[in-house]
Structure formats: structure tokens, C-alpha cells
Amino acid sequence: MKKLIPVAFLLLSSFGFSQELTFTDEQVAQGNDLYVQHCQVCHGTNLDNGQFATPIKGFFFEMKWGGKTLGELARFTWEEMPEGNGKLLRVEEYIATVAFILSKNGIEAGDTPMSEDFTALDEIALPF
């Protein structure tokens, strides 16, 4: 029996991520407004047609962020965006903007708001 415990622990820990990616329609709506105000000028009206920044929707976005965590995406957005002027907004506003971006990448809103705790978000794998 003692040999089963380490094996079971290894199997369970190999799955890595334990939390679900969640955000609400309210966060998406707030993120949409913030995107229009602060992001659209570079990333474009469709999130993939901007003249001054890389696409944040579709294949390019999925390739860049595939295999990463929600915490990595949220932290990057907070620290680096708008380019050269990171941490311009409150954390909750960055989280709402990330929720909006994820919704435009086919992830549906739910009943639970996305956390504003980057460490908690580090436990959530992006589904790309």
C-alpha cells in the first residue's frame, strides 16, 4: 500500500492545473469598453486587424499563449499594456480586458468572476 501513495501522488500532480478558467458577462462588458478606450487603436476593431500591434484573437494569439497560464497572460497585460505604459489601469480593469479578449477567442462567460489574484490565475491553464 505504501508504494501506491507516491505513484498516485505523481499521477495526480502531473495534471498540474486544478482551477477552471471563469469570468462573467459583466467582466466581458467592462472589458469591451476598456478595450475600445485603451487597446483598439493598436490592436484594431476586430482584435486582429490593428496596424500597430500583434493580433490578440485567432491563430496568432493561440500560438503565442498556448501552453501558458491565465496568470501569465493577465500579468503580461497588466505589466506591459498599453505598450510602454503598463499598470495604467486598476488590476480589476486589466482582468476585465483579459476576459473580453478570451471571450473573443471563443471562451464562454460563466457565473464566477475571474480572480484578480495573479498567483491564483497561475493555476489555470489557457485552453489553446
How much helix, percentage-wise, in residues? 40-55%
**SS content category:** mainly alpha
Shape: globular
Looking at the overall shape, the CATH architecture is: Orthogonal Bundle
Distance between the termini: 38 Å
The CATH class assignment is: Mainly Alpha
Radius of gyration over all CA atoms, rounded = 17 Å
**Tally the helices: what do you get?**
7
Which parts are unreliable, with pLDDT below 50 for 5 consecutive residues or more? 1-15
Order of helices and strands: HHHHHHH
The CATH superfamily appears as Cytochrome c-like domain
Main beta-sheet annotation: none
Question: How many structural domains can be distinguished in the coordinates?
Answer: 1
Query: What is the mean predicted local confidence, pLDDT?
Result: 90
The beta-strand count equals 0
CATH-defined fold name: Cytochrome Bc1 Complex, Chain D, domain 2
Strand content: under 5%
Question: What is this structure's SSE topology?
Answer:
Elements: H1 4-13, H2 25-38, H3 40-43, H4 59-65, H5 70-80, H6 91-104, H7 118-121
Helix pairs in contact: 2-6, 5-6
How would you describe the overall organization of this protein?
With 128 residues, the chain is mainly alpha-helical. The protein has one domain (25-121): Orthogonal Bundle (Cytochrome Bc1 Complex, Chain D, domain 2). 50% of the residues lie in helices and 0% in strands. The protein is built from seven helices and no strands. It has helices at residues 4-13, 25-38, 40-43, 59-65, 70-80, 91-104, 118-121. Helix 2 packs across helix 6 (91-104) and helix 5 (70-80) packs across helix 6.
